[in-house]
Design brief:
heterodimer, A: 324 residues, alpha/beta, Rossmann fold, 7-stranded mixed β-sheet, globular, B: 371 residues, 6-stranded parallel β-sheet, 8 strands
Chain lengths: 324, 371
């Protein structure tokens, strides 16, 4: 199987769907002539032309709202946000309009839109550019949100998102764009709402999404080699819909859970996961569920401190040792 | 000296007095048949009687939340919608009942929606501000000021992408012109030559704040802002249904034939408050002003007088239309009253397409989190 980057996997998904469905159109800032701020859409303008690959002015509320309006007529826009942090100037469109139109019309109108872009910290861009709003999105009925952590999932989830008739928001990561992994050339999808046990283990469950999955895999390796603790790693992949079964089954097997995410702690995604575990696996638990989130302050700029603010493998290991 | 507040109060600039007999001869109107001309009157009266009946229902406690009435502005929805063809679309803000009736939605489904009943146009899930009927090219009904303006650009973008010759009519109030989303939409519409016609229904007050207190250069109007976006614009006298048709048709032709957007400002007036919950609507404007509009600038009365003078209708014909509209409105209230509320299970329907179409579902996992 060929090895390609997370970035290339996303692009391949878009190329395949652009070829598959003439209603798919890519719109965003710098996606066409500039070839993408993070080169995810590199070469697409040349391949598909300016009707399908469209440079938008810096007007997130305007162009994302425009995409929502076009999707009501059956267009399938894939909108790039240069950063998910920029979503907040378009919040009324992203939250109010995209999520509510179907409901408020009594099911008469669909909004088959994809909004994608990076949502991560750790790149020295400070508080305004480091947001991870998957918890806000997941808090909004009518929306779906996924956070691929590797190239295979990036392609498979992106294709599912584009084919979905509901709004699907894809949270990527600038840190993972160069990560390489095995990705089939052929057409495949990863269904929304299907988690993956990335590493089998018996002593505890590390549950994470997005870049935090990589942190957990690193921690699991340290736990095995240095402490003889066999950690299972569960990659949520999709936040809403959520694969509760895989989470609960893992915890029932291991009886311990540490939840790791880049979100801030209050009302983060893992608050919901922690509730789920106590609700459905209470009798199986041998220790309280633990959480590691970003340290609860705006994203700090100073590079060494930013590293400390975000979840790290050594912190996960320390937390695990408290309950194992 | 530093200017810190806008001027407090001033009289609203008066519209030019309409001359319907003259305006009826303009190109967009000259070829109208008697049946069409009478039809416009019927549609305007239907809207007014519907709104009056809904006001009573609101006062009787049958309707929750806000009720933004269209009384006084009927000529705009009827005039604009009368120009629509197969690939033309409508989207508006929360003062949306008039446009809904004008595109052909029934009084029954509209009234039932106000009553929160399952027979409402949105199954009781939208309410007064959120009417929809895509089968009639009517895309809402949107509650956030200017939130619909990017969607209007999107409808036009969709038409252009699908190479259909049509346009999107995107209505907004005068309060929406100071929202960022509106300006972003104008720039995009002009930049990409989108076939959208933005129609400001300028009734003079963004809720309780006059135009003078909310927008710079009120004396020039607000459509002139389109100059900043290199976009066609015009001011139209809303008391004349014929002026509306003439002005809007030009903009729609520009959109359909040349894929160019326009910004139109139609001078109009609402007799009721911003919503029925607006208790101050006789404080931020004078009783004299309201009376003057009712007496001298009412688009339905002016149009009625034109029909009478042109001998298209006589007094009996006028009464007949009025009575029929009242009866239809009354029946719609009875229909709404007798209809059932949605049931609890309905709360979770129409949220996701996939959940409502389980046989075609691709996703897995849990989507609702109620226990």
């Amino acid at each position: 199987m060929p090895e390609i980057s997370y970035r290339q996997a996303l692009k391949n998904a878009m190329i395949e769907e652009l070829n598959r469905d003439e209603n798919v159109v890519i719109i965003g800032e710098e996606v066409a002539e500039y070839n993408g701020a993070y080169k995810v859409t590199e070469g697409l303008l040349k391949q598909f032309g300016p009707k399908r690959i469209v440079d938008a002015p810096i007007s997130e509320a305007g162009f994302i709202g425009m995409g929502i309006g076009a999707s009501m007529l059956g267009i399938r826009p894939v909108m790039e946000l240069m950063f998910w942090s920029f979503a907040y100037v378009a919040w009324d469109q992203i939250i109010n309009n995209a999520a509510s139109v179907r409901y408020m019309s009594g099911g008469k109108i669909n909004v088959p839109i994809v909004i994608r872009g990076p949502a991560n910290g750790g790149t020295g861009v400070g508080a305004t550019h480091s947001h991870t709003p998957e918890n806000f999105i997941a808090n909004t009925p009518g929306l779906k949100v996924v956070c691929p952590s590797n190239p295979y999932d990036a392609k498979g989830l992106m294709k599912s998102a584009i084919r979905d008739n509901d709004p699907v928001y894809v949270m990527e990561s600038t840190i993972m764009y160069n990560d390489v992994g095995e990705v089939p050339d052929e057409d495949y999808t990863v269904p929304l709402g299907k988690a993956k046990v990335t590493r089998e283990g018996t002593d505890l469950s590390l549950i994470a999404h997005g870049p935090s999955v990589l942190v957990c895999l690193e921690a699991a390796e340290i736990l095995k080699t240095e402490h003889d603790i066999d950690a299972e790693v569960v990659d949520l992949r999709s936040i809403r819909p959520l694969d509760e079964e895989t989470i609960v089954n893992s915890v029932k097997k291991t009886s311990r859970a540490v939840l790791v995410e880049e979100n801030k702690p209050f009302c983060g995604v893992d608050a919901q996961i922690a509730y789920l575990i106590q609700n459905q696996a209470f009798d199986y638990l041998d220790a309280p569920v633990q959480r590691i989130s970003a340290i609860d302050a705006p994203a700090i700029y100073s590079p060494p401190l930013e590293k400390i603010q975000l979840p790290k493998a050594n912190v996960v290991v320390k937390k695990v040792l408290e309950i194992c | 000296m530093t200017k810190t507040t806008a001027p407090k109060k001033s009289a609203r600039p008066k519209p030019t007095k309409a001359n319907l007999a003259k305006e009826a001869k303009t190109p967009a109107n000259a070829k109208l048949t008697a049946e069409e001309l009478i039809g416009f009157y019927r549609e305007m009266v239907r809207i007014r009687r519907f709104e009056e009946r809904s006001l009573r229902a609101y006062q009787q406690g049958k309707i929750a939340g806000f009720l933004h009435l269209y009384i006084g502005q009927e000529s705009i929805a009827v005039g604009c919608v009368s120009l629509m063809e197969e690939n033309d679309h409508v989207i508006t803000a929360y003062r949306d009942h008039g446009h809904a009736l004008a595109v052909g939605m029934s009084m029954d489904e509209c009234m039932a929606e106000l009553f929160g009943k399952a027979t409402g146009c949105s199954k009781g899930k939208g309410g007064s501000m959120h009417y929809f009927d895509p089968s009639k090219n009517y895309w809402g009904g949107h509650g956030i000021v200017a939130g619909q303006t990017p969607l209007g650009a999107g409808l036009a973008y969709g038409l252009k992408y699908q190479e259909k010759k049509g346009c999107a009519l995107c209505f907004l109030g005068d309060g929406a012109v100071n929202q960022g989303a509106f300006h972003e939409s104008l720039n995009i519409a002009s930049l990409w030559d989108l076939p959208v016609v933005y129609i400001i229904e300028n009734n003079g007050y963004s809720m309780g704040t006059s135009q003078e207190r909310s927008s710079v250069h009120p004396e020039a109007g607000i459509a002139v802002r389109a100059d900043g976006y290199n976009m066609n614009w015009a001011k139209i006298n809303g008391e004349s249904l014929f002026d509306i048709r003439e002005g809007v048709k030009k903009a729609m032709d520009l959109a359909r034939d040349e894929s160019k957007p326009s910004l139109l400002e139609i001078h109009t007036y609402r007799y009721q408050g911003h919503s029925i919950a607006d208790a101050n609507h006789k404080k931020y404007r004078s009783k004299e002003e309201i009376d003057d509009y009712r007496k001298n600038h009412d688009p339905i009365i002016l149009y009625r007088d034109y029909l009478l003078e042109s001998k298209l209708l006589d007094d009996d014909g006028i009464k007949e239309i009025d009575l029929a509209a009242k009866e239809e409105a009354e029946k719609s209230a009875a229909f709404a009253e007798q209809s059932e509320f949605p049931i609890e299970e309905d709360i979770l329907k129409d949220v996701y397409w996939e959940e409502d179409n389980p046989d075609q579902k691709q996703s897995e996992g849990r989507i609702f989190f109620n226990d």
